[in-house]
Amino acid sequence: MATKFVRGELIKSTKTQGDFHLSHKFGMEIDGVSVNGLHAIENITFEYADGDDGGVHCRPGINHPPQITFRRDFSAQKDWLEWRKKVTAGQTDRRSVSIIFHNDKGEEAKRLNLFHSYPTKWKGPSLNSKASGNAAEEIECTAEEWSFA
Predict the structure, then answer these.
(1) For the chain, which ranges sit under pLDDT 50?
(2) What pLDDT was estimated at residue 104?
(3) Among 74, 87, 121, 143, which is disulfide-ready with 117 (CB 3.0 to 4.6 Å)?
(4) What is the pLDDT, as a whole number, of residue 140?
(5) What is the reported pLDDT for 45?
(6) Ramachandran area for residue 50 (φ above 0: left; ψ -120 to 50: alpha; else beta)
(7) Among 15, 126, 135, 149, which residue's Cα sits nearest to residue 77?
(8) 40 near 133, Cβ under 8 Å?
(9) What spatial distance separates the first Cα and last Cα of the chain, rounded to whole Å?
(10) Which class for 39: exposed (0-12), middle (13-18), buried (19 or more C-beta within 10 A)?
(11) Which CATH superfamily is domain 20-44+62-148 in?
């Protein structure tokens, strides 16, 4: 007989008895303003390098800034593209970006704050006459500092 796992049983079996951070319930803010139409946030990775010998060492060292990708519906909004244009034109336009994790009730459970962020890459929509999905744009951001709240 197959074991059936239901969410209520899984919550009871955890040590914290708290909410899980669900991968499909999330949000994003840039300088405190919510970003709508967000599909995905990828590459939430923080790496460290240690030493000058070119080898990989498994201990904390120099912080490599993250390269996090955000994907949303492509629409008439041009804010991401304009932000990228400012940065490539040499203007310093660093912003605070927050990734917000929601619990089952839709309430904020945890927040990843990225400070002094700026876009390193903007990608327009892929167009395919046989596809039925929405057109999407992507922006890749880096940050100088980060923290969980």
Answers:
(1) 1, 13-17
(2) 81
(3) 143
(4) 94
(5) 82
(6) beta
(7) 135
(8) no
(9) 42
(10) middle
(11) Hcp1-like (2.30.110.20)
Backbone angles phi, psi at 84, to 5 degrees: -65, -40
What is the pairing mode between strands 67-73 and 136-142? antiparallel
Contact between 61 and 125 under an 8 Å Cβ cutoff? The reply is no
CA distance 110 to 113: 10
Q: Is 27 helix (H, G, I), strand (E, B) or coil?
A: strand
The residue written with tokens 């927050």 in the block is 98
Paired tokens of 62: 């120099």
Q: Which two tokens stand for residue 72?
A: 């949303």
- For residue 126, CA distances in Å to 13, 36, 49, 71, 136 come to 43, 20, 35, 12, 7
Q: Tell me what pLDDT residue 68 has.
A: 93
How far apart are the C-alpha atoms of 27 and 109, rounded to whole Å?
11
CB 84: neighbour CB atoms within 10 A? 20
What pLDDT does 15 receive? 46
DSSP string, 77-126: --HHHHHHHHHHTT----EEEEEEEE-TTS-EEEEEEEEEEEEEEEE---
